[in-house]
Design a protein that fits this description.
23 helices; alpha+beta; single chain; globular; 5-stranded mixed sheet; 14 strands
Length: about 625
């Protein structure tokens, strides 16, 4: 065997290379190209020797690079071809029927009419009537590439289609052109068909229409809340001025509203909603600075422009507006858009019982202002101007809200007191803490730490984002914020043997003969029946009022077990006075809130702890259902 020498390699390197060649081919470099004799005899007829990389498997033969590339090209060609067909087949339609929007009709549970709404506030203005800075605020908020894009966002549309198919509801990411097409030509339906049409029509509109005309259409067709369509109507609704006179700060707020009109409406927003509105407002202005549309120094000097109080439409006076507001919020939670509801044509039946509703209104009027009570007598303070009341009455067996009180008058006090959660829970939180301790005992976990109490509160129906939950002493003093609606759900769940009750005001909702699927109001077990029993036994016949005790149920007069969880008293800061409780048939959560009549800021409640909430609760339960245990007047504080 000859060893070839390479003048550039050492002897050791050449021998190593020789060994490698032999190992790989079975022969030295200059040797025969066939396999060695010892190996030739091992091959059977019909087989081939392995190559250096090894024999291909059937899977590798099937997925060669050429075939894979051919498959990709074929799929791409089919997609392009299919889209071309759609592009040719789908024309730009006429305007949708939003301009012909109908009224919404609201009914009581017995079918009698409560009210009707739907007078839409709209007015279109040419783009030159909208200040340039305000135009840019909307572009900065929704679509910074608006002036250079092709009218669509493929990634946003694909994400939207995927989430629609997956049942995840609405998904942002559409361009201004796509939103304009949806508002003006199509509908708010969350379907794949509508999204595909939106994509095709947006491409055509972008090619055939100027960017200024698209922007004008977008500003004039968008929904801003307060039943206002278009920037001109929104300018009047929120700032009482023409669109021409909007400042960039005000324009940025209107642009921010489009993401969540009700949630960001300053007049009705929760503390969390207001925080999000300000964050969105800042986001809009910061984007304007990044785009070179706003001077940084001017940006730093800007302050949030608080909008004017709204002027509710007629037909919503008294408690009507609060009932409609609660129903709208509940329907939007099911996935119906605010704009779709404002478009009208809905027939919405509430769970509200008209008899119980009148009884609740009479009881609150008597307790707040000294008006006639259910028995014709006068009760309460002569001037309750610093007091606001909120109440929710629910059947724990079905979860239906049978009565609701939101404030003195929706036309005068826009904020719905039954839904607000900016006042402390006070002693009404004590049963929740006890439930957590009982759950810990059943789980052999010892005492309930704060995390378990919070989990139990969330399971029972309180918001996990409740303000004040992490404050020192929050779980013993009830420092967290909570709404009458939430507390009604908590106590209804405890009265329902620990099965989750989510109070619902909407009994049925339909449009054009098509009914909306509503989620169940009663769910599964969230705390053990034994836990609910423990709480019921502790807060049943003799509820704590903070400053004393009184009997709500007289065992001698009641032919059945009380089955109640009833607690009342003032909050730690004495800005709220609560009374929550009832029976297995009816649970009512009622609170009095200290609020300055002019500024609507929280104030110390005059007479907090004097049993005012308990009196109103007692008058209501006595007048709304004979089957409920009657209070004992001589034991009232």
């Amino acid at each position: 065997m000859r060893i070839r020498r390479n003048p550039c390699r050492t002897v050791e390197q050449q021998f190593v290379g020789l060994g490698n060649d032999v190992a790989e081919t079975g022969a030295p470099p200059d040797g025969p190209r066939t396999a060695p004799a010892a190996r030739r005899g091992t091959f059977r007829r019909g087989t081939r020797p392995r190559s250096r990389a090894g024999a291909r498997t059937g899977m590798r033969r099937l997925f060669t690079w050429r075939r894979l590339l051919a498959g990709v090209v074929t799929v791409g060609a089919l997609l392009v071809g299919g889209f071309t067909v759609l592009y040719i087949a789908i024309d730009i339609p006429g305007a949708n029927d939003l301009a012909k929007a109908q009224s919404n009709v609201y009914l009581y549970s017995d079918g009698t009419r409560l009210t009707r709404t739907g007078d839409i506030n709209r007015e279109s203005v040419p783009l030159d009537r909208v200040p340039k800075d305000v135009q840019r605020a909307f572009v900065a908020a929704e679509n910074r590439d608006f002036y250079s894009d092709s009218g669509v966002s493929l990634s946003g549309t694909a994400r939207g289609i995927f989430n629609t198919v997956a049942g995840r509801g609405k998904q942002g990411g559409s361009t201004i052109t796509q939103q304009y097409v949806k508002n003006y030509y199509l509908s708010q339906d969350q379907t794949v068909t509508r999204k595909v049409k939106e994509l095709v029509i947006s491409l055509k509109v972008d090619r055939q229409t100027s960017k200024d005309d698209i922007l004008a259409g977008y500003l004039n067709t968008s929904y801003y809340g307060r039943l206002a369509y278009g920037v001109q109507a929104a300018s009047r609704a929120y700032y009482g001025k023409e669109a021409d006179d909007l400042t960039v700060e005000q324009g940025a707020y209107l642009a921010a509203l489009l993401q969540a009109p009700s949630q960001y409406d300053w007049a009705v927003a929760t503390p969390g909603g207001r925080r999000l509105a300000v964050e969105r407002w800042n986001y809009v202005l910061d984007n304007m600075v990044e785009e070179g549309w706003l001077d940084p120094a001017r940006r730093q000097s800007m302050r949030f422009p608080v909008p004017l109080a709204p002027k509710p439409v007629q037909g919503l006076a008294g408690q009507n507006g609060y009932l409609v507001d609660a129903a709208r919020r509940e329907l939007m939670a099911t996935g119906i858009s605010e704009q779709d509801l404002a478009g009208g044509g809905w027939r919405i039946t509430l769970n509200i019982d008209p008899t119980r509703q009148r009884a609740l209104e009479n009881a609150v009027a008597a307790g707040l202002d000294g008006g006639p009570g259910v028995d014709g007598s006068a009760s309460g303070a002569a001037d309750g101007s610093d007091r606001q009341a909120g109440a929710v009455s629910v059947d724990p067996r079905s979860g239906r809200i049978v009565a609701l009180y939101g404030g003195r008058d929706y036309l005068k006090h826009y904020l719905n007191n039954s839904l607000r959660s900016d006042y402390q829970a006070g002693p009404t939180f004590a049963p929740v803490a006890l439930a957590a301790s009982a759950e810990a005992k059943w789980e052999n976990r010892g005492l309930a730490d704060p995390a378990l109490i919070r989990r139990t509160a969330t399971d029972l129906g309180m918001s996990p984002q409740a303000s004040g939950f992490t404050a020192p002493g929050a779980t013993t003093l009830g420092l967290m914020g909570v709404s009458p609606l939430e507390m009604a759900g908590v106590y209804a769940t405890l009265s329902n043997d620990g099965k989750k009750v989510t109070p619902s005001i909407v009994k049925a909702a339909e449009r054009a003969g098509e009914a909306t699927q509503l989620p169940p109001s009663v769910g599964g077990q969230v705390v053990r029946p034994e836990t609910a029993g423990t709480v019921t036994a502790s807060y049943g016949a003799e509820p704590s009022l903070g400053n004393g005790r009184f009997s709500v149920v007289s065992p001698a007069q009641s032919a059945r077990p009380a089955q109640t969880v009833t607690v009342g008293g003032p909050s730690d800061d004495r800005k709220a006075d609560w009374f929550v409780g009832g029976s297995a048939e009816l649970v009512t959560s009622l609170a009095l809130f200290g609020e300055d009549a002019t500024s609507q800021k929280q104030v110390t409640l005059d007479g907090a702890g004097d049993g005012g909430a308990a009196r109103i609760w007692s008058m209501y339960t006595a007048g709304s259902a004979d089957s409920l245990p009657r209070p004992l007047p001589d034991t009232l504080p």
